[in-house]
């Protein structure tokens, strides 16, 4: 864990308002972890981290500005100023995964934009967490992107050290080789994957929690015909719609709003689902 000497530690009572702000794309929005009771119909690792922070130390507020499909430049345009205005205590940033999956984008250009974003966030004095990217299991095309992802990760590590950020080295985490950690699209974490990541982030922050990663039974072997059928279904359900959106130059994020654009105080008991329930009850009165 790397930090500057004057960066407040999570849990230190250095301010009357402890605020966690999450920035990024679908990874942080929570895509792949459905929950109809929450905004955008998803939950995700960041919500879980916010809830455990509040349980460990009541009074934490939380804003999640992340929106699916966003590239780094869009995070800068749409999320950076909003985050800076909030004067956060804790910031998490995962951005660049969508850029890496755009073959025409140079990694050098991606990292230049990323560094400008990190520099601005580091100047807030907040605890800043950055993430490397995992080699997503996009079989059989993962090899096309692995080299680009590794170059991106090396850049993230260098930038984290340069700006005194804490690195969450997601690329090294055990457990994500199991396909059940991934949603059906193979790009986003499943509920199990989000829970494991929340636990790892809380461990990095040295926050006590009770999240227990899922222990899976061994996977049953698949015949060649079943494997081919699974690949065909994945291509029809996910790859073809994605290609159609790329051809039309649209993304799912074009009509998606941030889940928690304004800070909310997270109830230490019941968490964000309790907050939504209380809001619904208040609206009916």
SSE layout and pairings?
Blueprint (H helix, E strand, L loop, with lengths): L18 E6 L1 H4 L15 H12 L4 E4 L7 H15 L3 E5 L2 H4 L6 H16 L4 E5 L10 H21 L3 E3 L22 H14 L19 H25 L11 E6 L5 H14 L1
Parallel strand pairs: 1-2, 1-3, 3-4, 4-5
Antiparallel strand pairs: 2-6
Helix pairs in contact: 2-7, 3-5, 5-6
Based on the model shown, name its key terms.
285 residues, alpha/beta, 6-stranded mixed β-sheet, globular, disordered N terminus
Q: Would you write up a description of this structure?
A:
This protein is α/β, with parallel strands linked by helices. 44% of the residues lie in helices and 10% in strands. It contains nine helices and six strands; from the N terminus they run E-H-H-E-H-E-H-H-E-H-E-H-H-E-H. It has helices at 26-29, 45-56, 72-86, 97-100, 107-122, 142-162, 191-204, 224-248, 271-284, and strands at 19-24, 61-64, 90-94, 127-131, 166-168, 260-265. Strands 5-4-3-1-2-6 form a six-stranded mixed β-sheet, with helices on both faces. Helix 6 links the parallel strand 4 and strand 5. Mean pLDDT is 88; it is low at 1-16.
Strand order of the largest sheet: 5-4-3-1-2-6
Using only C-alpha atoms, the radius of gyration works out to 19 Å
Task: Summarize the main sheet.
Answer: 6 strands, mixed
Amount of helix: 40-55%
Mean pLDDT: 88
DSSP summary: helix tally:
9
Strands, count = 6
Helix/strand-derived category reads alpha/beta
Oligomeric status = single chain
Proportion of residues in β-strands: 5-15%
**Unreliable runs, pLDDT <50, ≥5 residues?**
1-16
Report how far the terminal alpha carbons are from each other: 48 Å
Order of helices and strands: EHHEHEHHEHEHHEH
